[in-house]
């Protein structure tokens, strides 16, 4: 059911019955290492390119989610996934492996919630019994495409963020045990004229704010309805900017109820500058840590607002500004 201008209310309450989360060696040293299902010891993952390793991350996450749910890939109607690499080839090649009917998505770092929103819509309206959805990123592959290969040792400013090596997926079903998806707000593309690719948090913050306000207005609720509102990967700079923008627009969020996945995944002392980023950031933090906290009863109502910068190396070279987007999905404790 459409509520307001941008929000779907899922009256059938699709269930997240299983998840799979996979990370790399840097994530193994982070704050949330215990919430990953699989942690690889090196970035190559026994492959001969970082892009192939990226594909394996997603394949492993899918395999783990299916195993935990005691389901086979043949039970899935659709596979919704995306990443940052040219033409989302890691996701498409993973779909080649698993042979689940595939819908490729690109929302940059907002892809995790784009996928969960669409998966929930399909399941809510009996378009599928089971949909598996997720997002992934690989630090070395993304750095090579958007900036400089890691081997160059290029210096970065304090506003830069560290791309997560990880994949997170969820199986969304019509029935079962697990947290339920109650609504989704689809964001607008917001461009405030910023063009610095090393300040993605600042660029994406206005999109996060726009979607949060749209979600609250459409649903007719206040931010206190949620135990936690978490953005995708604004990092330190973006979170501070978003809090200021929300305050300017008359929405004062309680700081202890507003966090960012990019500030949660790594521990103090890891050289991540302003925090973490990448489609794998919100995907692994949600499908690993946050849903585990929900299962423990520490979170009852959660709003995840994944943010994405919709630039490419080509648009940057052509001196374009950075258009950004954010998609929000609300999740509540169901039959746990």
Extract low-pLDDT stretches. none
Order of helices and strands: EEEHEHEHEHEHEEEHEHEHEHEHE
- The general outline is globular
Strand content: 15-25%
Q: What does the radius of gyration come to?
A: 18 Å
Numbering strands along the chain, what is their spatial order in the largest sheet?
Answer: 1-2-10-15-14-11-12
How many individual helices?
Answer: 10
Distance between the termini: 25 Å
What class, by secondary structure content? alpha/beta
Q: Give the total of beta strands.
A: 15
Helix content: 25-40%
Largest sheet at a glance?
Answer: 7 strands, mixed
The overall pLDDT average reads: 94
3D structure, described in words:
With 336 residues, the protein is α/β, with parallel strands linked by helices. The chain contains ten helices and 15 strands. It has helices spanning 25-28, 50-69, 89-98, 111-124, 139-146, 200-219, 235-248, 261-264, 279-295, 313-317; strands at 2-3, 7-9, 15-23, 38-39, 78-82, 102-104, 130-137, 162-163, 166-173, 178-185, 228-231, 258-260, 276-277, 301-309, 324-335. Strands 1-2-10-15-14-11-12 form a seven-stranded mixed beta sheet, sandwiched between helices. Strand 1 (2-3) and strand 2 form a beta hairpin.
């Amino acid at each position: 059911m459409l509520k307001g201008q941008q929000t779907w209310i899922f009256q059938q309450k699709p269930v997240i019955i299983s998840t799979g989360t996979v990370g790399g060696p840097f994530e193994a040293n982070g704050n949330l290492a215990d919430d990953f299902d699989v942690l690889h010891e090196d970035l190559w993952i026994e492959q001969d390119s970082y892009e192939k390793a990226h594909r394996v991350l997603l394949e492993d996450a899918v395999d783990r989610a299916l195993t935990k749910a005691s389901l086979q890939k043949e039970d899935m109607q659709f596979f919704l996934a995306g990443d940052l690499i040219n033409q989302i080839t890691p996701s498409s090649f993973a779909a080649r492996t698993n042979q689940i009917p595939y819908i490729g998505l690109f929302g940059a770092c907002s892809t995790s919630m784009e996928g969960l929103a669409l998966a929930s819509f399909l399941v809510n309206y009996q378009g599928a019994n089971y949909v598996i959805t997720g997002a992934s990123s690989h630090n070395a592959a993304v750095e090579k495409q958007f900036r400089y290969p890691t081997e160059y040792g290029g210096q970065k400013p304090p506003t830069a963020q560290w791309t997560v090596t990880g994949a997170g997926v969820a199986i969304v079903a019509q029935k079962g045990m697990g947290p339920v998806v109650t609504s989704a707000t689809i964001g607008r593309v917001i461009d405030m004229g910023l063009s610095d690719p090393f300040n993605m948090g600042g660029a994406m913050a206005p999109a996060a704010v726009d979607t949060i306000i749209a979600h609250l207005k459409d649903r007719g609720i206040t931010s206190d309805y949620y135990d936690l509102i978490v953005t995708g990967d604004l990092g330190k700079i973006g979170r501070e900017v978003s809090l200021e923008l929300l305050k300017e627009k008359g929405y004062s969020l309680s700081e202890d109820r507003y966090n960012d996945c990019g500030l949660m995944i790594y521990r103090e002392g890891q050289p991540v500058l302003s925090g973490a980023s990448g489609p794998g950031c919100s995907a692994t933090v949600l499908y690993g840590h946050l849903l585990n906290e929900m299962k423990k009863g520490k979170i009852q109502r959660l709003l995840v607002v994944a943010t994405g910068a919709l630039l490419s190396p080509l648009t940057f070279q052509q001196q374009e500004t950075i258009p950004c987007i954010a998609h929000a999905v609300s999740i509540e404790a169901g039959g746990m």
